[in-house]
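Protein modeling request. Please complete all fields; requests missing the sequence field cannot be processed.
Requester role: graduate student
Desired output: 3D structure, token encoding
Chains: 1
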Amino acid sequence: MATKFAARSQAAARYLSMPPVMPKSLRYLRALLLVMAILLALNTIDRLGVVLTYGPSDGTSMAVGEGLLAIAGCTFLLACVGAFFLLGVTAKRSWWLTLALPLLAIANIAVAFAIIPADHVGVGLVLDAYLANGLLTVVLVVLLLKRPVRAYFGITRPAAATKAA
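Delivered output (165 residues):
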């Protein structure tokens, strides 16, 4: 009877234990993801406005151009919001999925420059591509690769190979 009670109390203690303290750089990273999501929402609306006003680049129909811009922008936006919530859970999978965000940033930039006509690529689009998609994504990766964040998710460096004598 005593062993049964001890097993139950250990199981209950395992579920009631406090999660590890979230590092400060991870809190900054989560805030950055929300800022990126807000900027991406505004940038996607602006890009769609440019395409609706001036039309897409030559050889692209209006529906395809609008659709590609909306899909690329909204996918990146939703991935940023999803990464915000994923990084609240201490699982290696959450860290690895967030590390894949730069691929969506590249796709978002490529679609914007392919669909928007070259005559109407202005300062706003260039700043959007380099600031919101480029620079903020680099900051995201740097924060994600910091040692306290990796340790929080249990990501460790591989052991150094020892030289044979």
